[in-house]
Design brief:
- The chain is mainly α.
- The chain has one domain: Hypothetical Protein Ta1238, Chain: A, CATH 1.20.1200.10.
- The protein is built from 5 helices and 4 strands.
- The chain has a two-stranded antiparallel ribbon with strand order 1-2.
- Helix 1 runs antiparallel to helix 2, helix 1 packs antiparallel against helix 4 and helix 3 runs parallel beside helix 5.
- The radius of gyration is 18 Å and the shape is elongated.
- It is an enzyme of class 2 (transferase).
- GO terms for molecular function: ATP binding; corrinoid adenosyltransferase activity.
């Protein structure tokens, strides 16, 4: 099988049920989700290197769910009966975050992304996830989408933030507080 099809040489690509320009907001949204999935794959490796097995397993599951998010956004017509992303996925992310948050020190000020290699990678995932979420919000202004994808991405970026902090805790590295920040979290 050849990977190249030449069908996109004129700037269009296939979606489920049609074709659109490659810079269509739908392609921007699920293309950014694909980018996030790649960064998540890097975090899977770093979690394994850090011996953070629970996180590694969760991130692998999230990678599959990110594919589901992209798939749900790839329908040319609203197809509620075919969507894969649903509320229980969002609730499960919340449960995972609640467990990891028990390990984290109280947050008082804004923190800088960074610390351990794993934490830094998770912060990259967080920021790419926020971009994917923004693009999904933009898409939803003009196209009917699965609203659960937007909620999943919103919660997922929080998950990346919490786990980035937990990765630093487990590596024995404190959060680096933003020096110009007052106490903003109480």
């Amino acid at each position: 099988m050849k990977v190249y099809t030449k069908t996109g040489d004129k700037g269009e690509t296939s979606i489920i049920g049609g074709r659109v320009p490659k810079d269509d907001p739908r392609i921007e949204a699920y293309g950014t989700i694909d980018e996030l999935n790649s960064f998540t794959g890097q975090a899977v490796f770093l979690a394994q290197e850090a011996g953070f097995e629970e996180l590694r397993e969760q991130l692998l599951q999230i990678q599959h769910e990110l594919f589901d998010c992209g798939s749900d956004l790839a329908y040319a017509k609203h197809s509620e009966d075919k969507y894969k992303v649903s509320g229980p996925l969002v609730e499960r992310l919340e449960e995972w975050m609640d467990q990891f948050e028990l390990e984290n020190p109280p947050l008082e000020r804004f923190i800088l992304p960074g610390g351990s290699a794993l934490s830094s990678a998770l912060h990259v995932c967080r920021t790419v996830c926020r971009r994917a979420e923004r693009l999904t919000v933009t898409l939803a202004r003009t196209t009917e989408i699965n609203p659960e994808v937007r909620m999943y991405l919103n919660r997922l970026s929080d998950y990346f933030f919490v786990t980035a902090r937990t990765a630093n805790v487990r590596a024995g590295m404190p959060d680096v507080e933003y020096v110009r920040s007052g106490k903003v979290f109480r």
